[in-house]
């Protein structure tokens, strides 16, 4: 092979890898949403038409990472009929003397149930400002897809845990700004 051909192949491979690096996050997010990988739930437009007799207990978990918040689920658990939409609430309080910018992420366990847990309304992935001392009640409307009954590896599922974590977005912005200055 001559040097020009090797240079063209190497440049093409480098450009392909750079493009793949930029596309990896959206591709991974899409993969997780489609497959439920890592407990990623789905967002739905409407609840299914079919409601099953099967009941699954849904537990609620609340966590805070690097934010001056008190965050809790207002209920510990709810019995949910597969296919029926349900409503749960979380409550978040800013315990600091300053406004705080936060964002919530979520997942479900066991991870194999992620693709069957659908949210109709949720407070996740939206940056929000919570004023100093303010308390907000945050609704989650969800259902468990009846397709869970057709999946043999979910026959043993009696409980699903929906877990939310709030993050301080100011710290992420500050870290990104510092990284760009380096």
Offer a quick outline of the entry:
The chain is α+β, with helices and mostly antiparallel strands. The chain has 2 helices and 10 strands.
Description:
The chain has helices spanning 3-35, 169-181, and strands at residues 42-43, 55-65, 69-73, 77-81, 86-94, 100-109, 117-121, 128-130, 135-144, 159-168. It folds into two domains: 1-35; 37-181, Ctag/Cox11 (Ctag/Cox11 (Pfam 04442), Sandwich), CATH 2.60.370.10. The strands form two sheets. The chain has a five-stranded mixed beta sheet with strand order 1-7-9-5-3, with no helix packed on it. The protein is 25% helix and 38% strand.
Task: Record the SSE blueprint.
Blueprint: H1 3-35, E1 42-43, E2 55-65, E3 69-73, E4 77-81, E5 86-94, E6 100-109, E7 117-121, E8 128-130, E9 135-144, E10 159-168, H2 169-181
Parallel strand pairs: 1-7, 2-10
Antiparallel strand pairs: 2-4, 3-5, 5-9, 6-8, 6-10, 7-9
Strand content: 35-45%
Determine the CATH topology of the largest domain.
Ctag/Cox11 (Pfam 04442)
**Coarse morphology:** flat
Unreliable residue stretches: 35-40, 174-182
- If classified by CATH, what would the architecture of the largest domain be? Sandwich
Order of helices and strands: HEEEEEEEEEEH
Instruction: Give the biggest beta sheet.
Output: 5 strands, mixed
* Computed structural class: alpha+beta
| CATH superfamily label of the largest domain | Ctag/Cox11
**Looking across the biggest beta sheet, what order are the strands in?**
1-7-9-5-3
Count of distinct structural domains: 2
């Amino acid at each position: 092979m001559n040097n020009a051909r090797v240079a063209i192949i190497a440049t093409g491979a480098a450009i392909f890898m750079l493009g793949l690096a930029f596309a990896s996050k959206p591709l991974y997010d899409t993969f997780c949403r489609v497959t439920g990988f890592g407990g990623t739930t789905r967002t739905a437009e409407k609840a299914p038409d079919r409601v099953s007799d099967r009941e699954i207990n849904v537990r609620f978990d609340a966590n805070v990472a690097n934010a001056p918040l008190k965050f809790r689920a207002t209920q510990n658990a709810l019995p949910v009929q597969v296919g029926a939409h349900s409503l749960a609430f979380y409550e978040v309080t800013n315990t600091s003397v300053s406004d705080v910018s936060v964002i919530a992420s979520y997942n479900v366990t066991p991870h194999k149930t992620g693709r069957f847990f659908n949210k109709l309304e949720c407070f996740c992935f939206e940056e929000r400002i919570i004023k100093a001392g303010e308390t907000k009640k945050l609704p989650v409307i969800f259902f468990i897809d009846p397709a869970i009954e057709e999946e043999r590896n979910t026959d043993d599922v009696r409980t699903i845990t929906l877990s939310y974590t709030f993050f301080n977005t100011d710290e992420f912005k500050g870290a990104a700004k510092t990284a760009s200055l380096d």
